[in-house]
Amino acid sequence: MSASASPASHSETGATPAFQLRLYVAGQTTKSLMAVANLQRICETHLAGQYCIEVIDLTKTPQLAAGDQILAVPTLVRRLPEPIKKIIGDLSNEERVLVGLDIQPVGCDAS
Amino acid sequence: MKKKLPETLPALSKAPTGIEGLDEITGGGLPAGRPTLVCGTAGCGKTMLAMEFLVRGAAQFDEPGVFMMFEENAAELTANVRSLGFDLEKLAVEKKIVLDYVHIERSEIEETGEYDLEGLFIRLGHAIDSIGAKRVVLDTIEALFAGLPNHAVLRAELRRLFRWLKDRGMTAIITGEKGDGNAITRYGLEEYVADCVIILDQRIQEQISTRRLRVLKYRGTAHGTNEYPFLIGAHGFSVLPITSLQLDHRVSTQRILTGIARLDDMLGGQGVYRGSSVLVSGSAGTGKSSIAAKLLETACRRGERALFFAYEESTEQIVRNMRSVDIDLAPWVKKGLLEIHSSRPTLQGLEQHLVVMHDLVRAFRPSVVAVDPISNLTMAYVDAEVKPTLMRLIDFLKKEQVTAIFTSLTSGGEATTSAFEESQVGVSSLMDTWLLLSNVEFTGERNRTIFVRKSRGMAHSNQVREFVLSDKGIDLVDVYLGDDRVLTGSARVAQEAQERAAATLRGEDHQRKLRQLASRRKAIEAQIAALQAEAEAEADEVHFAIAQETLQKKATHQNTDAMAQQRGGATGANGHTIEKR
């Protein structure tokens, strides 16, 4: 599961996606799996075609933890667009994830 | 880890810190394989202590370490400690130290759902594994409380972290900011780290700051419980006492002369013991510094090194002023035998001064050290603080076999009053020899006197001597005791003149008496002669009378005979003829 790109990213636009997301987890814990699932769901709902997700398992590549100043896991890092934002936790609260990533929810857009 | 340490105590193995003094207080170091909490206010040296523990561990005890910092970044820290002679970059390249800067920006972080701090564990674990670390520093982990909103999670994770460090056998230092009031740390870290707690403290008294260290708690071992002054000097962190806490220094039976002949006489004729401490106390202008300078000069003359800590005068001023009493220090300074170290006592705290002294004594290796005066050093401190500090200095000097002269400006009146004695009570008991200088004011002038108040282990004079400073040097002169008081200066000179006059007068008196006696004898002799002459005259008279009588008798006899013959022997016939018939 280390450094694997999400299947839903490049194919639709071809260009560099607007949202580059990186999710740090530690092993296949419940929290990790929850976070990955939640993230994919939220991105598909609100950022279809504009994102790529990189999942990093720190138990396999611990040296990567220092680069993004990771302490808590799971941590979601929004590398693009600038500025860098971090969301810690299993991303179960969709509303707060959207606030954290600075994304206008699709539902609100339409109304 | 457990067996690597030099200490083979079964109870608790310890990891030496290599920090001067700290290992003595803790009886060998921090608890090995356990976390230690170091807390204190901002700027009191927590980071420095932790860093030195790590650097010395890596460099001296072959225990690599991980420094995980939460406040400064690695470049800043490296720069900060480079000034103390720690080359972190080199140690990092040699894989003896890992510096890891953990930074959390609250504004960048959004929190949603459950999480833990496994990322921190992974980072730390990775750093430990990469160099085989035995020591860990977390400085200051409390920064996490500001960065992470969920303190409940954080506390649970910290508990787990310290447990985890223990399980991995890491000797760790966790630093923490002192909390308000009686709280040891702001976020109660002491709850989690219960094995050893060291408190650092910085307080300001009379505008001079002093840093102090105290081992609040050290589970399973005895430790010094006092507050010990410490400082961060040019060679890193050092906790006083640098010297041993026991009274077990070697003593010398060798004596060294003070250079003031009469003073040596007062000290049993041989001066003071090498390595002893001499206190010269007196009120202003009694010549304390001159005695100290003389002792140093004498040491230089013997070819020994001498060190002068002056807290009142600058070097040049001392050299100039001492020349006025025929003590020329300049050639010895030039030769490198004498070093004068002048500074203001308020320049730094008392223990900072002490460490400067330590460093200089260690570097210069003098045989005699003078501190002029200690009373200035103590200006800003209460006696209770000065005594232990001075004791440490004296102990140190004794251990190094350095003879020490301390001058002390006394307050509270003249040497005979009890207030005076009290003003000296703090330090005098530490001294082996105590010379007391005082001023005697009499007949419109003040003169200096000196006496030996005490001198351990040698016969010493009980006499008060006049102490004379002149351009010919220092001399001691016998004083005159008269009218129940000591006479000094011109009163002494007057008394001397008076005594000389009296002596002359007495001499003349004797002469006169002798002359009188002689003439009397002559008179008597004349009388005797007259009497004798009289007697002789009388005797002559008697002889003459006797002779006359004899003559007369003879004459009469002849006459009778003649008459008898003339009468025809009638008379003769009366006698002889009758018989014939």
List keywords for this structure.
heterodimer; A: 111 residues; alpha+beta; Glutaredoxin; 5-stranded mixed sheet; 5 strands; 31% helix; 23% strand; disordered N terminus; B: 581 residues; alpha/beta; Rossmann fold; 9-stranded mixed sheet; 17 helices; 25 strands; 41% helix; 24% strand; disordered C terminus
Structure description:
The complex is a heterodimer of chains A (111) and B (581). Helices cover 31% and strands 23% of the residues of chain A. With 111 residues, chain A is of the alpha+beta class. A five-stranded mixed β-sheet of chain A has the order 1-3-2-4-5, covered by helices on one side. Strand 5 of chain A pairs parallel with strand 6 (109-111) of chain B.
CATH class of chain A: Alpha Beta
Number of strands of chain B: 25
The quaternary organization reads as heterodimer
The rough form of chain A would be described as globular
CATH class of the domain at 14-239 in chain B: Alpha Beta
Number of helices of chain B: 17
Share of β-strand residues of chain B: 15-25%
Secondary-structure arrangement, i.e. CATH architecture of the domain at 14-239 in chain B: 3-Layer(aba) Sandwich
- Radius of gyration computed on alpha carbons of chain A: 13 Å
**Structural domains of chain A: how many:** 1
The strand order across the widest sheet of chain A is 1-3-2-4-5
Mean pLDDT across residues of chain B: 82
The description of the largest β-sheet of chain B is:
9 strands, mixed
CATH superfamily of the domain at 14-239 in chain B: P-loop containing nucleotide triphosphate hydrolases
Q: Strand pairing plus helix content of chain B: what structural class?
A: alpha/beta
Round the mean pLDDT of chain A to the nearest integer and report it: 78
